[in-house]
Amino acid sequence: MTLREFTLDTPMGRIAGLRQGRPGLPRVLALHGWLDNAASFEPLAAHLPGIALVAPDIPGHGRSAHLPPGGDYSFANAVQATLDIADALGWERFVLLGHSMGAGIASLVAAACPQRIERMVAIEALGALAEAPERTVARLRDAVVATRALPGKRLRLFPDIASAARARMQANGLSEPVARLLVERGLDPVDGGFAWSSDPRLTLPTMIRMTELQVDDLVRGIECPTLVVYADPAQPYLPDPLRRRRAALLPRGQLVVLPGTHHLHMETPQPVAEAIGGFLRGTA
Prior knowledge:
Blueprint: E1 4-10, E2 13-20, E3 27-31, H1 42-45, E4 52-56, H2 75-89, E5 94-99, H3 101-112, E6 117-123, H4 136-149, H5 161-172, H6 176-185, E7 187-190, E8 193-196, H7 212-220, E9 226-232, H8 240-248, E10 253-259, H9 264-267, H10 269-281
Parallel strand pairs: 3-4, 3-5, 5-6, 6-9, 9-10
Antiparallel strand pairs: 1-2, 2-4, 7-8
Helix pairs in contact: 2-3, 5-6
């Protein structure tokens, strides 16, 4: 099946993305990771027939609109953006598929709106990144300083797409084909070359994070059947004992650990699709 472009008008602005499938198939809304875009799901989609997959560029990413001046790319805002996208699609109930940041957003949506989410697949994240309570003030101060300094920063300029792809490969340990998929959708032509199309405000530190106890409560509140997929080895910010403990809090959870990198759904899509395909379709 071939992914095709789409656009939607939402209260937060124009949303672009990629989709496949036809009406009547299980509805799956796929949310990509931080500074990625809808192309994140292209390799996986090729192995997932039998679903209506919609992968939007989350606001501020890819080809979707940036938030207006003063807008805040918080998780709370992302929850509303996700529901706005589902509303614009005419989807009352649907399945959530998320990778990394997208899995964090999906976790919040599933906990906040259990009546709308049929099931969820969370790849390489569950819940949200937590902060130690004693780090609250330091994080807040750092975020305010960074926010006030952002208008003076200049966009990084690349002479060509290949240079940008090499930068993503170096930053995220991606293979060249995977990096190019993300980069080709995530660049804008500008005078002198190319610049990232993503909103620079996305790089700002989060002002306030949940504590680990709050994340526990969030995960316990995810009522739908949930499949969690982690890569081995674990990411440093979510060590294996912590991620397993979180998955065990799910009322109706399953855990799968596969060998791979953080972008395993792109680098090794076939085993990921084999692990999640039946679950997405409601047959496993």
